[in-house]
Amino acid sequence: MQAANPSSFLRVLAILAALLVCKVTLSVVIGYRHYLPPNFETDFLEGREAYFWGAYSWAFYTHLIAGPASLLVGTLLVSDRFRRAAPAWHKRLGRLQGLCVLFFLAPSGLWMAWYAATGVVAAAGLGSLAIATAACVLLGWKAAVERRFSDHERWMWRTYMLLISAVVVRMIGGLATVTGLDPLWLYPLSTWASWLVPLVVFGAVQLLDSPRQPVGQQA
Fold first, then answer.
1. Percent of the chain as helix, strand, coil, to the nearest 5
2. Cα separation of 195 and 162, whole Å?
3. Can you say how many angstroms the Cα of residue 198 is from the centroid of all Cα atoms in its chain?
4. Among 17, 28, 57, 142, which lies 20 to 30 A Cα-Cα from 174?
5. 158 Cβ contact partners less than 8 Å away, ≥ 6 residues apart
6. What does the alpha-carbon distance between residue 205 and residue 199 come to, in Å, rounded to a whole number?
7. How much is the CA Rg of the chain, to the nearest whole Å?
8. Measured distance CA(18)–CA(182) in Å, rounded
9. pLDDT tens-digit profile of 32-83?
């Protein structure tokens, strides 16, 4: 039996991720009814009324808009078919995506991270996620400007792996609800696992996908 091509595996992952992104985005949009106006009896906003109004509310609503938009646009941008069919639109949307992440998504996520309800471990996980996402976008943008398109593609895939942390963390929460297992350490752990695990998986696939150098040519 022929071994699966890692590139094909990436395409399958992209399709599955796209379906999950659509589902999560729909659930997020449906949940907006609890945030306009804010309902402080809902799970996420519970206990936040004391500091909600002001800078936090600006970060919160900015993140609500930038998060789903980045997920949907990112799903489109990692599609090879879309890039080949509409390279000009790929470039335009890529610029908009970069600006959205750098000026809206990452800063709002970083601001909200320090108000994580479950403590410093979760705050550090979410803050690190925001910084890592901005860094990947900057490095991907730099690679594109320098016409290092293979590097650009890798950095933007890493960015996408970070963006789908929103999907992963909801999957972890849903699994905890179904199983009835919801210890206090689960959410802080999930704030790290939701983006570190996808990055590790992507790195492993990249290693499998890289051409093997003949033994005689190895350094």
1. 80, 0, 20
2. 5
3. 9
4. 57
5. 136, 140, 199, 202
6. 10
7. 19
8. 27
9. 888 888 999 888 888 899 999 999 999 999 999 999 899 889 989 988 889 9
